[in-house]
Amino acid sequence: MKNILTSIGLLALIQFHPLQAQEFKLDPAGYLRNEGVDVMAFSDVYPEGKQTGVTIIMNNNRVAASGDIRLETSQGQWQPLPVLRSRQVNETDNSITVTLSYPDSSRHMTGFNPTLYPDFVFQYTIRVAGEGDDVIVTVDLDTPVPQKYEGKIGFNLELYPGSLLGKPWIMDHKAGIFSRTGEWSDNLLRIEYPMARQL
């Protein structure tokens, strides 16, 4: 096994409470499915088009996508992207595990808009597991995040506000309504978890 892993730990605990308790189960397509909610993990890999990573579909509407490690808190179009190394669907423990790494040497300082990767080389896994009516997302890095990158490198999950405008949200004992007017400062939800801890 690898050296002691640095864990971002439990990054996301997504709870869905339908009227009757159902469970998230892997379906034949390799998605976690539960009563109108699909959670996909790197089922389609096209990061430039915001179509990769952990994706949540509710009642046939994509409400969140691009759940992955990013090297900046606000991902831009020409920002560094990881390399997908492997994807495993494990029916025994009802999970999907992917292995990725930074940097992507095929993109570093190449092309019309060259991407500049920082001097931090690492590999990581993202595990998405259905546990009852919860989905647990766990991210493990193979090396600690250097101090100069703390607060910059993190797990991003992008919401699609077009589907959510005017709708309420509840998370971590906070609540609000997604604004229709573009005044997001009062409604911006940012949940921060410790970036690294020794296991």
Describe this structure in words.
It is a single chain. By secondary structure, the protein is mainly beta. Helices cover 2% and strands 43% of the residues. The strands form three sheets. Strands 7-8-9-10-1-14 form a six-stranded antiparallel β-sheet, with no helix packed on it. Strand 2 and strand 3 form a beta hairpin. The longest helix is centred in the C-terminal third of the chain and has 4 residues, at 161-164. The chain starts with 5 loop residues before the first strand and ends with a strand.
Short structural description:
2% of the residues lie in helices and 43% in strands. The protein has 199 residues and is mainly beta.
Give the SSE map.
Elements: E1 6-15, E2 25-26, E3 32-34, E4 37-41, E5 54-58, E6 61-70, E7 83-90, E8 95-102, E9 122-131, E10 134-141, E11 154-159, H1 161-164, E12 168-171, E13 174-177, E14 197-198
Antiparallel strand pairs: 1-10, 1-14, 2-3, 3-4, 4-5, 5-6, 6-11, 7-8, 8-9, 9-10, 12-13
Report strand order across the widest sheet: 7-8-9-10-1-14
Order of helices and strands: EEEEEEEEEEEHEEE
Structural class computed from helices and strand pairing? mainly beta
Characterize the main sheet.
Answer: 6 strands, antiparallel
Q: Low-confidence runs (pLDDT<50, min 5 residues)?
A: 1-19, 184-199
Protein traits:
single chain, 199 residues, mainly beta, six-stranded antiparallel sheet, 43% strand, disordered N terminus, disordered C terminus
